[in-house]
Fold this sequence. Notes:
By secondary structure, the chain is an alpha+beta fold. The chain folds into 2 domains: 200 residues, no CATH class; 73 residues, Alpha-Beta Plaits. Helices cover 63% and strands 10% of the residues. Strands 2-3-1-4 form a 4-stranded antiparallel beta sheet. Strand 2 and strand 3 form a beta hairpin. Helix 5 runs parallel beside helix 8. The mean pLDDT is 84.
Amino acid sequence: MKKWTKEKVKNALIDFILILIACSVGSFATVSIMLPNGLSSGGLTGVIRILQSFLPLGFSTMYYLGALLILAICAVTLGLKEAKKILVMSIMYPTVMVIFERMNFQLLEEKDMFLAAIYCGVFMGICSGIAFSRGYSSGGSDTVAKIIQKKLLPYVSLSKLLMTIDISIIVLSGFVFGRNIALYALVTTVIISKTIDLILFGLATKIIQIEIISETPEAIADYIMTDMDRGVSIETIVGAYSGKEKQKLLVLCSPREGILIRQHVAKADPRALVTMIHVDSVWGNGHGFNDIDKE
């Protein structure tokens, strides 16, 4: 028991250090790159950028209020267990942002929106990648998508809702700041996504294969099909030692979807065995992969 307590303290300390680094990198991207160059993005950051045009409040103050509002709604609609995931970054991220605002430092010597869009995407992607790798979230559009799915659109996949929310924010920013800003925001969003995948799974991985051995295979399969909008196979296997039959789930998905699936399995069945395997190529007409007759 004592050893387990020490291990928990060690993991908590590592989490704190890594999340602090993530928040610092993300805050730097926002305060020292995005804002000085007049850019925007998707997610909560994009919403605050739009609201800042109409309300006489500082960016970090408005971000704080927005993050706490999402945290409160998440706790009410999704429960305290889900809210705990975003609690740390909902408080730490805007706090670190205030520090960077007072430093008043700009990365680029002169205004350059193209360079700013690229570097902003890289740094924000590093921030999200580190957070996702430790099972944390900043409580932005991904949390809003979960809330909408649970309360309004339970049959729409989480990935589609998230994409719709971010695109809507970017389009709206085009009406407020101009079309060029919206296009730069789209560039930033794409780079964020690619950087997250790089942080989580390295350069080459585009598709991964996940094998899950669980006591609750039906519930996990339902989540994969409904929330992830991915196909899943279930195979009966026999343990060599126990001789007992068990169910193994097999799914092919993107690295980011793999992280979401792993996090869900951790909640649904903490005793489950999860294996992630890098896949070089996947072909299959009508399955969301490369057409088998074109490559």
